[in-house]
Amino acid sequence: MPTVHDFTGVPAVVDLACMRDATKKLGGDINKINPLVPVELVIDHSVTVDVARSKNALQANMEFELERNRERFAFLKWGANAFHNMLVVPPGFGIVHQQGRVVFNTDGILYPDTVVGTDSHTTMINGLGVTGWGVGGIEAEAAMLGEPMIMVLPGVIRFKLSGKSREGATATDLVLTVTQMLRKHGAVGKFIEFYGTMELQKKKKKKKKILLKWATIANMSPDYGATMGFFPVDHVTLEYLKLTGRSEETVIRFVLHFMNHLKLGKEIEKKGTNFITQPQRERVFWSYLELDLADVEPCVSSPKTPHDRVPLKDMKRDWHLCLNNKVGLKVSNFYQGYGVPNKAQDKVVKFSFNGQPADLKHGSVVIVAITSFTNTSNPSVMIGAGLMVKKACELGLEVKPWIITSLGPGSEMVSKYLIKSTLISKVSMLLVMAAQHALETQGIWMNMIVAAVLSGNQNFEGRIHPLTRANYLASPPLVVAYALAGTVDIDFDNEPLGRGKDGKNLAQSTVLPDMFKSAYESITKGNSTWNQLSVPPSTLYAWDPNSTYINKPPFFEDLKIDPPGPHGVKDAYCLVSFGDSISTDHISPAGSIHKDSPAGRYLLQHCIKPIDFNSYGGRRGNYEVMVRGTFTNIRIVNKLLNGEVGPKTLHIPTGEKLPIFDAAMVGTTLSSLFEAFKLLLATKRYLCLVEVHGCWGGHYCFGRGRIWKCEDAESLGLTGCERFTIQLPENINEIRPGQDIIVTTDIRKSFTCTARFDTEVELAYFDHGGILQYVFESFSNRPSFLNIPSWR
């Protein structure tokens, strides 16, 4: 079952609407263009923090969300009505990777569900023993339309968890430790099968918490490079299903007997009221790892990558090493420093906030967020954070008023157990300032290395905020601790957290939470605001030429049924040259749009005020914005500019330094500009001169066009200023997966690349110009959309 969030869901529905238009233009049956499998589209990526530290912050932010995204939401609601098999979950009901299903039961047929989702952390469902992983938006669209997921059989790493967790170590500390171990071991593209933790499973009350730790570990699979972090179904899984409202019959008949019969999990028996997992035979794996839970200690991520871990006791020392290290360099175990001269490291910026004197230093915390990702479905860390807030309020500790704070529960259930435990009111007592006032200080951030601390799962540069250059991932209780301390330049063991109402210094240990009880309630549905959105009951979308949110992309313009065939590259210049640690956030940012960027200038030309820009993710339904947003991450480092930081490049051959989009468009006429849009949008001219790391990049690029992998540019003696020609056979039948391809240059250097096609199916996609074009042709040969079950 494909699951998509609204950032990728909007362009997916745009593509489906375009395919219907193209089908009508070719005289076909538009009813053929429908998802062939059930699709869940969860609107979960649109909310931003306009109001914080206020009792009505949640309601106010949801109202702002609807007003800002009304056109997008109406478009998605139209799609839910126009297409069969598409369920749209309105905003405010949780995030996509926490909406997974365990078993799908339709028309008397029982089978295990598999999930592919456009949220990279779809792997959270692996904690329940459900197969699933993240894919690109194009792959998810293909899955909606009946295309199989093709992959090379991965290696499987066995990861044994044993022992008992030490006091004070959270699920976040565990997952950061696991992530670091797997990154060091080498897990890219692998399946990880976790097992063990039997010592923790003996006490019944702990069974309910263990699976939530599993889900947290599974959630971080993409951050340790794996395709999937899988926990096979066992007795803890069944106990969790009962806990979350499944009936005894469902758990025993539909899960236990079914899984045992097909041997899809561990062998489980029911004895009395308990489920017992039988001992398992040792099996052969690709490789092996083991972790004693007693070795896990409190920690945070490094400030720029989620997969590097910093023990909490070493945090202060690590921070000063980061200040000293050169920008963009990896030194020992410390990554990408800030290059702050020693004499400038004690710099203090004085300012006034609401009439009160204040100051910022390097390491000052300006954003804290308990976000709706890795941790916010785990009651132990969420309620732990709430209890810390409660204790801090009682002792008189306060968060500095200019710090932007937010709490984003991962699902409605999380909100309910915080409300039921009365902790949500305690959070409101501590956080009582509107975020827009805090925004006044952002001009000061620009010249300082200020920090954000959040409980999410991604801290790549520019992801959290363009001006916070140090972004740490931590458990929710540690997020609260850093909010109270106001700085990451602190040793919690030896320095006070702050002053209480009696004026005395208070250590972190004084506000650490004790044991707690959690409350679970079922998730309810219903959203009156969403229901009031009015959309036309049409099967074809009425495109608005003046819209800056939704417009018709050129993918299917002049589309022909016959495939265009393979195409080489002749005399191409290098647009950008990047080093290691490039993420999808660097290539296609989802964050804020700067008014001086190409996308910002486009919106200003269309009379959109900067306050209404929204984000790149929010405007993914407009290809004009997205092509201008490619490579606009403000922290990206382009080797063509000798390591200069920022979204610019060297235009070749003029030597002019330009924004990357502007450089790509130099010399285009009005007619060729439209063609250039199509090429850049489809990334059909993507040449990679370094080894590709990770699972998503290669698959997504051949889905849109092509990608090659070979030796790195430095070892080949290439500067990036050469002209490149890729010699490719004209007949697709002459190309094989993994085939060597010759690349020549205008300086008489040539080298061999490996075509990044793993399967024959990928070659077929390439032959047609992309997955969507291939699927469109296959749909023309299918019968009309009849007798396919729909949720409506």
UniProtKB/TrEMBL annotation:
Residues 602-665 form the Aconitase A/isopropylmalate dehydratase small subunit swivel domain. Residues 3-486 form the Aconitase/3-isopropylmalate dehydratase large subunit alpha/beta/alpha domain. Its cofactor is [4Fe-4S] cluster. The keyword Metal-binding applies. It comes from the Eukaryota. GO terms for biological process: oxoacid metabolic process. The keyword Magnesium does not apply. It holds the Pfam family Aconitase. One of its GO terms (molecular function) is metal ion binding. Keywords: Iron, Iron-sulfur, Metal-binding. Belongs to the aconitase/IPM isomerase family. This is Aconitase/3-isopropylmalate dehydratase large subunit, alpha/beta/alpha domain. It comes from Dillenia turbinata. The lineage of its organism: Eukaryota, Viridiplantae, Streptophyta, Embryophyta, Tracheophyta.
